[in-house]
Amino acid sequence: MPRTSAGLLMYRRASDGLEVLLVHPGGPFWAKKDAGSWSIPKGEYDPSVENPLDVARREFEEETGIPPSGEFLELAAIKQPSGKVITVWAFEGDCDPDAIRSNTFTIEWPPKSGKQREFPEVDRAGWFDLAAAAGKINRGQLGFLQKLAEVLDAEVPVADADQPGPD
Fold first, then answer.
1. Which residues, 6+ apart, have CB-to-CB distance to 109 below 8 Å?
2. Quick one: average pLDDT of 154-160?
3. Quick check: 73 and 90 in contact, CB under 8 A?
4. 100, 64 contact by CB (below 8 A)
5. N or C: which end of the chain has fewer CB within 10 A?
6. Exposed/middle/buried for residue 99 (C-beta within 10 Å: 0-12, 13-18, 19+)
7. What is the distance between the alpha carbons of residues 109 and 98, in angstroms, rounded to a whole number?
8. Which positions ≥6 away from 31 have C-beta within 8 Å?
9. Can you list the positions of beta strands (E) in 62-164?
10. What phi, psi does 29 have (nearest 5°)?
11. What confidence tens digit (pLDDT) does each residue in 87-135 have?
């Protein structure tokens, strides 16, 4: 059985079209990476134990500090290059990306130093129009932008996102 994740894609309507909230993974590996590194807030779960929408809501709040609310539109379940299957819902909302507060994780850093350091799971968030988001988002998640555009009757250009990223 493949690994599974569930997430929420917050969107808002701006004067020049749709914008989506994406998050950038924290930690030293991602510190200097940008294009192809951003993601939809999401997390893994065991489908025999947890409801995916409940997981998506919990993970969104853990990674942003924002409790999601409103109508949740199921977009798709998309198999990632790693084999993981991510299911995403969209919801309309707004927030200040500079005000996000993420949970943290601990790793040995620098490697083989014996020192444990704590990093935020998400180090920043941002609003992007669909064209910019297509260039920022992990290539495996691009289909969620396309599905959102389809559901909301908007346009999203297809990015040439060959960079690998977190899934």
1. 28, 115, 116, 117, 119
2. 57
3. yes
4. yes
5. N
6. exposed
7. 26
8. 123
9. 73-79, 85-92, 104-108, 116-120, 122-129
10. -65, -35
11. 999 999 999 999 999 999 999 999 999 999 999 999 999 999 999 999 9
